[in-house]
Amino acid sequence: MTPLAGGSGSSSWGRGISPGAAPHLEGKTERVNPSLIGSSPDTLSDWRSGGYRGDASHALAGAGAAAAMGPGDRLKQPQCHEAKICMWKYLDVHSMDLINKAQTTDELKRVLAELFQLQGWESDPRAAILLDLYFYTVQFSREHSFSREQSSAFFTIVKDTHEACVETPLPNVEECYRYFTELLFCHAIRRPPFSIDLFSQEQLALISDYVVNTYFRHFKLYKYAFTPQIRLDISLSYVGMPEPEPAAELGPRAPLREYISAQLCQEMAQLRLAVEEQLRASEEQFNAKLALLEKVPNSSKGGGRGRRK
Question: Cα 39 vs. chain centroid, distance in angstroms?
């Protein structure tokens, strides 16, 4: 069992705490340009002087994408959420007491897994990602000596931001970041009953830097791991243009279909020839009978004229 350390570099991503964890930055946090939020890892690595931590993307990508959406599933559009005071929303006083009693990494993860029904995190990559996200959130609160109220509110801010991220597979980084900042201000400005001054300005800056550097830096990876994939099939039709011929069917039955089609075409051609021959023979017989009938009246008419003379 590994004891929980108090330094910011005590629990790093690459120390094998859990596969698919949200990265925990060592040492001093740094401010990220908001225009880079949700960008690809390559873009963020170009911006960050220290280089991008590739093990973070590998861990989240290892969770695998969700099942593709079916044709009957409705695609949920990005929503704009209203920020409210959320202290004690997920972690009440009793839950915070259980968390504070946990003195080791294993104990803290066990408590969080029991509180949020993540007991199968060792075999479920998504549960492991959520558990590490919650673990590092609590660890950050401990490192900066947050009170129980502050820890509960900060945990709720992170969890609600994540739920807003994964509610739709469509891009919604702007909506999520706006919701995150509004949640922060709801707990940093004294304006009851709409907001309270729970965090100081220094704590507000620390929380903002931490969430941007850990969660929003890997926004697309979280969305890839927790939302279904979208496959878009597009067919274009132009007015006045002939319709394209359907593509040949591929598969194990395609040769059989081709053989049957060839045999049918051959039989149809033979049947057509037989019908044409019958029609030609019938026409010749009809013409012969017609010619014979034309000769009989002409001969009888000629004989009558000879007797009158």
Answer: 16
